[in-house]
Amino acid sequence: MKYEILFFSRPGLKKNALLTFCIGVIFGIFFAYTTVSITECHFKDFKILPSKFSYDKNSYYDRHSHGHGHDNAGSFNDSVVMKDHSENETLHFDEDLVAQELKKRIRVICWIMTSPSNHIKKARHVKATWGKRCNTLLFMSTVEDKSLPSIALSVKEGRDYLWGKTKEAFKYIHEHYKDYDYVLKADDDTYVIVENLRYMLTSFDPKDPIYLGCRFKPYVKQGYMSGGAGYLLSKESVKRFVEKALPHKQCRQDHGGAEDVEIGKCLQLVGVKAKDSRDNLGRGRFFPFIPEHHLIPGHSDPNFWYWKYIFYPIVEGMDCCSDTAISFHYVDPDNMYVLEYLIYHLRPYGVSQNVDPSIINKLDLKKESNITKTDQLTNKTHHNK
Length: 385
What we know:
By secondary structure, the protein is an alpha/beta fold. It has a domain at about 95-345: Spore Coat Polysaccharide Biosynthesis Protein SpsA, Chain A, CATH 3.90.550. The protein contains 13 helices and 13 strands. It has helices spanning about 1-40, 40-45, 55-60, 95-105, 120-130, 160-175, 195-200, 235-245, 260-270, 290-295, 305-310, 335-345, 355-365, and strands spanning about 110-115, 135-140, 150, 180-185, 190, 210-215, 215, 225, 230-235, 275, 325-330, 355, 370-375. The longest helix is centred in the first third of the chain and has 37 residues, at about 1-40. Residues about 1-15, about 35-50, about 55-70 and about 365-380 have low confidence and may be disordered.
């Protein structure tokens, strides 16, 4: 009888052990899944052997952003074609004489970072609004689109290849264009007031190795310029970047990395100076977010990455931004047209715009033009360093 009890008890032991094992496996999978979910962002950047090109992508990438390639196209219907606002209004007659003269003297190539999926959703709205004020407008993509037109660069598409696309874009410009003074890089959701850009540039020389934009502190000793807000290279800087920086071993050779950080590193290697783009009151001109995020106090959390990155002291509220502001980022198509109307068409009756007299003297415009002069405006940058 004892042997029978022992004989029949063995299967029971095996069943209990198997049940315990299964429960342990299920618990282990659940625990591992929970742990990974909580700490997912930390595992992404774990590196056994850190690269000399590495930086914390999670702390770098804009948590405020819609992200390049993400859908911030607003509610705009892709089939809608916007008609131009009538220019036959007395309020606009001869108001842009200075701007048109500056356009002849300060030649700016604007190249727009875009992708095939954004040609209709975003890029065409840049062309219909602020892009037409550039001397030359180029759309850099990976697929040719004659409606823009876009240039098909020999690089893979996607956020992980923006640095590769940036390198190819500047190489293309350096090879195909000679008659220009500056090159502006912007995204397909950046809005730029090109006239204010040229006004700022009257204080600089395209023969100097300089670049300007919204200046950030980390990763590069002299700082680097935000890609979304748009950054500007002088003709000499483009030459140095393509001919000297790109072949340099310390300039990142693969296509990975954040394009604005990487170009900042490469430009510093070849003596291109990051300059101060603020106005004479110390107010910013290039902005990495839409206007309301800078104008409305308390919009961003004090621990938001922007406050740690920004190179110069800034304030929130109406005094955040220069009266000659140049760019805003994350502007969807709807607001491209809103800004276009507010900046270029809406006029408070009886209020005239003052123009820097030093610019008038440089341009030697006719006295009979209806330009109002003032001695109060100057275009000196805050530190110009």
